[in-house]
Amino acid sequence: MSWQIAQFGAYTVSTPANMSLVQCAILGSMLLAAWLLGNLFIYRRLSKSKFYVSCLLLSLNSLAFIALLGTVLDINYVSTQTNQAIFITPGVSQDKLNTVVDDKSLNNKLFTLERNLDLANAIYLSSPSLLVKTMPNVNKITVLGDGLSPYQWQALFASQPRWGNTHTSSIAVAFTPGNKTVGLVNMSWNKQLILGERLTISGAIQGPDTRVIADNKDVIKYSLQLLSPSGDVQQELMLEAGQAFNLNTRPKAAGQWLYKLKLIERGNEQNILELSDIAVFVEKPAGLRLAIWQSSPSFETKHIKDWVGAAGSQVTVVTQVSQDAYLRQTFNQPETDAGDHSDDGFYSNQALDKTDVLIIDGRALIRLSANERTRLQKAVQDGLGLLILADNDLASSNLNTDTHQENSLNIPKVREDKQAADELAIGNVDGYIAPSNANSSQLLGVSPLRFSDEKGDVLLKATNQRALVKRIKNGFGQVALTLLPRTYVWKLNETRGDYTYLWHYLLKQIARNTQQNKWQNEQQDQLTLVHNLVNACLTSRSDGLDLVEPHAFIERVNNQALTQQPLFLNQLPEQSAWWCAHYWPEFPGWHRIYTAKTHTTEQANKQLTASVTEQYSYVYPSDAWPSWQQSIKHLASTEVAASAPEIAVNTYDSSLHKGWFYGLLLLLLTLLWIARRLL
Prior knowledge:
The chain is α+β, with helices and mostly antiparallel strands. The strands form nine sheets. The protein has an eight-stranded mixed sheet. Helix 3 links the parallel strand 4 (about 85-90) and strand 5 (about 110). Helix 1 (about 20-45) packs antiparallel against helix 2 (about 50-70) and helix 2 (about 50-70) packs antiparallel against helix 16 (about 660-679).
């Protein structure tokens, strides 16, 4: 332990190490006494000499005393140094680049992540994580140009834990963005669809920088075209810089499709600002097993039956024609077995277990006996989807109460309201957008009923925010209730596309989940790029996956030299139903990921038809969507720089070498000895 005596700037004077305070006091007193006695001796001996001779000798004695203190005391000094790593990324301005290149500071090093950036003295890094090996003493990172992507920032901070993370950086980070490019940003679309669903594309136009706009008094306008896979223009919008947009289309066939977005400056159609791909995988819908139980024939159920049956799905319709007589019809399936109907006429447990959705009107529901209702309730709790067509009979029945015994199906409650009968336009629900400028042919009639409480999820609502369809979960199944008695008018009024999407959406939200395993869809607002990390997650309804290692494979599509990469799925500890794998795609284009109960890729390829939970995803080249990537990098780099400290330096604490003091002391003592001999 040592005691600090004084500090002069970066220098600190301390007592000798491992010396107690008492010992230091005694030593200091002895040295001070020696200095005073020496000065007194010199003064008395030279009192009759010239004044300047006495002053010179006293000064030499004092300097010798200081040199002696330097040999005894510990003197430390602290030095600081900023070691800066400068990342040059695309988009950096030429003026800024020239300034950085002309800086010859030994503490600054230039780095680039792009091979095609020809910069003198710049070190190429294939990944930002290599910075810590190339420049281990770096304490400030400066990024110029477009910046680094979120994935690159994560890789950089993961390489050195003491730097913190992207949200709480402990190393200084500075970011100087380059000029914004004109193009499409903030893109989002559903990359995996089921045939019949609508493709919804949203985004915005990124305009030039403010200073560029200032030079042009007129507002710059653009034309945005949605091109089909065959190259036809399906939709066109006229937009201004900074304006958001929404585009909608419906794929007509299953498969892997590449739509395109084409951005053109109005008035200069030859200037194509951007032409980017919209990759969509359209999957064939699984066969729906639909059952209809109705108290009387209905146009609504007839058109639902025709629409579902036209897609090849199995449909069973039971209509009550008298008090004890029922008309039974089947479509796309053999005649019903005797065991499908119980002695009381209603569907048996066996038939309900083979049904995905049961549609029933309110009057038919309240006519069910207690045993039939119990049977229905059990089927719903086991996964059956139940859709009830609301009517006045249901609203006034005991089923529309809070009594647990009467409302064991947990049906959304409704009440009669004569003023509620209306024709309304359908609003936006889960990406579904019906015509907002609805004319008489696009309005749907609503029953004179209203939902009487807030219980349940709203599946569909009108543009005035009135709930039209609600759903409540019951066990593994769903119970939904609709206030729309005549949706078939859309089909009759040549708006079949909206009718198809409406019922496709509703049945998807209600139907029994028959998939044991399912790959999670890609996030709509993220881009999958070549050589970037991809997370593939499989959800399973069973307790464990019946797979051997490797669990899955990823392979390129439409590649003559087929290459397959095995994937190993790891169960997430916090979500036991989720199994995830990571991979880095090496090539752009379509890729297929699928599970396989095999040990080798050859066996997986042969047994693919029997393997499989599969999905297709598109990997974009690294230069795809340039404006979107630039905006993502700008945002990520700005956030990291905002959370980082402003100043960071490396501090070096060193001891001053005592050899200088010994040499000085020897020199001064020699001079004093010579003076004593001469005087």
